[in-house]
Every structure is written in structure tokens, then in C-alpha cells.
């Protein structure tokens, strides 16, 4: 444990709009190792990581950076409909994030589609990405994912569920939900895979998945593990669903902590 974590808010200017970010800096013994960058899921934002970034910074002694993607949380609205190449597009946006935050070297950790984006970033920024951790990420479109999204969409018909989404995304909440549902159910996405991005990854990679993930079978992390450097088998979290950082944050951190320590010791 490294003591109290200091949070610093910052704004990142991009050609399409300004992004909101939080930097979590461990106190006590100070910052050690290269920073960890978090990528949120399709309905997520910085606030929905809850206290996971602080816990991660405290346990690892590393700076932890989380930012709201364009269209989400406290970042600017996305200019138009979300394109089907939005995962690859985020790897381009990250170049601006990296430059403005002076990230020479970094670790990427992404949840769900944020894990897909983390992989795309790792493949695009091979000169700086030291390690990649995917959590509940998708590697291809499968029926379980599509069914889970439709079920969630029906839940958001309840006013209280939509109100919770609006609490975090404001008047962008409708766009956030539509972007998630419509993109995954679009014709261009029917045969989507993450293979091309995974093929570009050169850094050690750890795929983590909940045993009972309602949005993706265990074939998803196995595909990621098979196409990237690192452990040949994914790390499966027993009795866990799609959101390990809320369901079992301590177990999630302990699942990848030795992996990060091994990278730092290289």
C-alpha cells in the first residue's frame, strides 16, 4: 500500500472536441513504474470506474489515467453518428492523448470494448506500449454479445435506468445508448473481428474474463490470448460476470498484478 492517492483533473484538446481525464497519483512511497491508462466500455466513463483507479494506483504504486472518450461522460459530444470503425478510430485519438499527457511509455488496460480499443492502441503505438491487459473484451461478434445488448436495451426503457445513464452522460445519454446498440447490430459489424489489431500487438498481453460474463463466452479471451504475445491461456475469474472492476475489484487487481510486476522487472 502506498498511501493516499491524489487525483488531478485535466482537459485534452482534440480536433473533434475536448476530452475530460483524471490522473490518479499514489502518495506515500511515490510513483513507481510506467503509468496505466484505462479505457472504459460502451456505456462507461471515468466516473463509472468508481474507486477502481484509486485502488489500482494505491496497490501498484503507478499513476493511473482514465479519460472519457469523445461523446461520453464529461467529454465533448461526438460529432455525428458513431462510425463502425470506432475502435480503430480511438487508436488515432489516443495519439493526441499521448502527446498532451507526455506518455512516452505506458500500459493499456481496457474493459469490454475498451479492451478492444486498448488492443488497437497497443498495436498502433508499439513504440510506447509496454503491456496490454484486456478485461471482458470482445474479439469477435457472437450471439451472446448481441442478445446481451438487446436485453440491456429493453432495461433502459425503464425511466430509472435511463436516468442513471443521464447522471453520468448528461444529454449525451441517448447517443451513448444508440451508438452501442446500433453499431453492434449493424450489418458491417456482423463479421467484425479484432484480429487485425491483435496481429499488430508486440507487447506482453494478458486477457482476463469473468467465468459468467453475460456479453461474451470464454472463446473471446482465448482468441485474444492466442493471437498476442504473453500467457497462452487467459485468466478466468470464477463466479464473476462482465464487470470485474465492480464485482470483484481486489481479485481483478491480483489477477494481473504479478503480470505487471514481471513486465516492470524486465
From TrEMBL:
<dbReference type="Pfam" id="PF00561">
    <property type="entry name" value="Abhydrolase_1"/>
</dbReference>
<protein>
    <submittedName>
        <fullName>Alpha/beta hydrolase</fullName>
    </submittedName>
</protein>
<dbReference type="GO" id="GO:0016787">
    <property type="term" value="F:hydrolase activity"/>
</dbReference>
<keyword id="KW-0378">Hydrolase</keyword>
<dbReference type="InterPro" id="IPR029058">
    <property type="entry name" value="AB_hydrolase_fold"/>
</dbReference>
<dbReference type="InterPro" id="IPR000073">
    <property type="entry name" value="AB_hydrolase_1"/>
</dbReference>
<feature type="domain" description="AB hydrolase-1">
    <location>
        <begin position="35"/>
        <end position="145"/>
    </location>
</feature>
